[in-house]
Write a structure and sequence with these properties.
Strand order of the largest sheet: 3-4-5-6-7-8-9-12
Structural class: alpha/beta
Number of domains: 1
Oligomer: single chain
CATH class: Alpha Beta
Mean pLDDT: 92
CATH superfamily: Divalent-metal-dependent TIM barrel enzymes
Number of strands: 12
Distance between the termini: 8 Å
Helix content: 40-55%
Low-confidence stretches: 1-23
Largest sheet: 8 strands, parallel, barrel
CATH topology: TIM Barrel
């Protein structure tokens, strides 16, 4: 469905992106392990069964936490488990305080230490969600955060990795003020985006508009849906029109990841096993996105 290459494009009113060709993953569909809870937090026997379940559901890639690369021992255990089940982990997630100068130094050092080890074990993308605060960040805090994202993106690029900014609802306040500040004030050649479509919606913003505005700076999409505002047990039709999302992706030549991230909350009607819901979600991605 999507073209074979991704060309970073120019969007009116947004920073000019260099014409960099980005090769797409052969299979862009992954599953975020968040829904498995503590069973997936560390490379161990529980993770072994989690990965077995993921493989049975038809996925070849997973996304989890940068913490897996805290030590070489942990990274090697992870490698063995991934190989056992024929899976890869191309992207890993971390939070980080990047708006406070002192805390940012520690956060960047920590991320780079783990990312360097991750790069040696097949990691390709580091997904970072800048820590929220109570209320909205000041202009100075946003400027500091943007500069630190540029620093981090440059350092990760030197390791052969890409940085993707993730967001939850707080970044959507005041017309997605924080999110747009990062889009407009970071280096488009070094800082990319992991757009979590449903958190955009829950934050009161339009996920289709943000996707259009970020364009080819989006290299990962986190996919979840809801019915009547409540998270659904599987990825399927609901409050977000993923066929419309697919049309936008085709138009912009998207060649990033499509990451299924199920989550259950109070009010979620769970009628099937997690394994069945993950299988159905994989089938839905194939139906809607052709992948």
């Amino acid at each position: 469905m999507f073209p074979t290459l991704l060309l970073l494009q120019v969007f009116q009113g947004l920073p000019q992106a260099a014409e960099v060709v980005v090769l797409a993953p052969t299979d862009p569909v992954a599953v975020q392990l968040y829904v498995f809870g503590e069973a997936s937090r560390h490379p161990n026997e529980q993770l072994d069964e989690v990965l077995a379940t993921v493989k049975r559901c038809g996925y070849s890639q997973v996304q989890a936490w940068l913490d897996y690369f805290d030590s070489e021992e942990s990274a090697k255990v992870l490698d063995n488990l991934l190989k056992k089940h024929g899976l890869t982990l191309p992207a890993a997630y971390s939070g980080a305080n990047l708006h406070d100068p002192e805390q940012a130094e520690k956060a960047i050092a920590s991320i780079l230490s783990r990312a360097k080890r991750g790069a040696e074990h097949g990691l390709r993308v580091v997904v970072v969600n800048p820590d929220p605060i109570q209320g909205e960040k000041t202009d100075d805090q946003l400027m500091t955060q943007a500069k630190n994202l540029d620093r981090l993106g440059k350092a990760l690029a030197e390791l052969g990795l890409r940085l993707a900014i993730h967001q939850h609802a707080p970044e959507m306040a005041s017309g997605a003020r924080e999110w747009y500040h990062m889009l407009r004030n970071t280096d488009p050649e070094r800082v990319f985006f992991c757009l979590d479509t449903h958190w955009v919606l829950r934050g009161g913003q339009d996920p289709y508009q943000l996707l259009e505005d970020a364009g080819n700076r989006v290299i990962d999409l986190h996919l979840r849906n809801s019915t009547g505002g409540v998270w659904a047990e599987e990825l399927g039709d609901g409050d977000i029109d993923y066929r419309k999302v697919s049309e936008i992706l085709e138009r912009i030549g998207y060649r990033g990841y499509l990451t299924v991230e199920l989550a259950h909350e109070k009010g979620t009607q769970v009628t099937r096993s997690l394994e069945e819901n993950l299988k159905r979600s994989r089938e839905y991605v194939r139906e809607v996105f052709g992948r």
